[in-house]
Amino acid sequence: MWLSFRNHAVLRGITIGVDHGETLCLLGGSGVGKSSILRLILGLILPDNGEVIVEGQDITNVSRENLLKLRQHIGMVFQGSALFDSLTVFDNVAFSLFEHTEMETGEIRQRVDEVLSFVDLDPKKVLTLMPAQLSGGMKKRVAIARAIVHQPKILLFDEPTSGLDPITTRVIDELILKLREELSVCAVVVTHDVQSAARIATETALLRDGKIIFNGTPAEMFECQHEYVRSFLS
Ligand SMILES: Nc1ncnc2c1ncn2[C@@H]1O[C@H](COP(=O)(O)OP(=O)(O)O)[C@@H](O)[C@H]1O
Ligand SMILES: [Mg+2]
Q1: What's the CA gap between 158 and 34, in Å, rounded?
Q2: Domain with 14 in it
Q3: What residue owns the CA closest to ligand 1's atom 27?
Q4: Which end of the chain has fewer CB atoms within 10 angstroms, the N or the C?
Q5: Cα(189)–Cα(217) distance, rounded to whole angstroms?
Q6: Residue 199 has pLDDT above 90, yes or no
Q7: What distances in angstroms separate CA 71 from CA 98, 134, 142, 213, one per listed residue?
Q8: What is the CATH number of the domain that holds 26?
Q9: How many domains are there within the chain?
């Protein structure tokens, strides 16, 4: 797949894939196009060339209506959490259910309780809080709860642990693992944290200069003798 912005070629012929129950970590320096890959999967931007297959459909070639349907299968955890600052935790998490489903308020409350518990937050304590009242780690958990509330099959994370301390980073990594084990979601995680990738990935891909210079399991990555891979890991 190829992607450029104006005359700047960002992705220059990359092919990657991820199956259900797997977690692909996208690694690479800043500006290599990691976030762009997530935006391609969501169909927010289109490649110059190539296919983006989501749930068996090439989203570069579907109707607007089908694209919106496919997006319902995806949950996204944005960089920096990106909660709605003026909404409570409940309204943040419930947002897509009110927006895209016919669920009754009672059912929505129950579902929000469920996902908050899944991310180890006590619904009774956090439902009415505003994002500004939450710590960085709690914001991240709320963002994850929001991303899984509509039971997506695919989860996208953009730098989920950047800016978090090492202990909170581990907690979030554990949550990402729990999502794979208990909900069997397919996840794509953009990270520059090699240690996180080693913990959570079943597959890793390292990008550089618009190309994938390594694709394999974390164990294979640590064994890889390629000069740039070695320098990236060290
Ligand atoms: N909407 C856009 N318009 C123009 N350039 C963009 C746009 N989005 C990203 N870019 C450029 O594309 C490159 C890759 O960006 P990005 O995918 O955000 O990288 P990463 O997430 O790996 O840091 C960068 O050079 C960035 O400046
Ligand atoms: Mg980015």
Answers
A1: 8
A2: 2-233
A3: 31
A4: C
A5: 14
A6: yes
A7: 16, 28, 20, 29
A8: 3.40.50.300
A9: 1
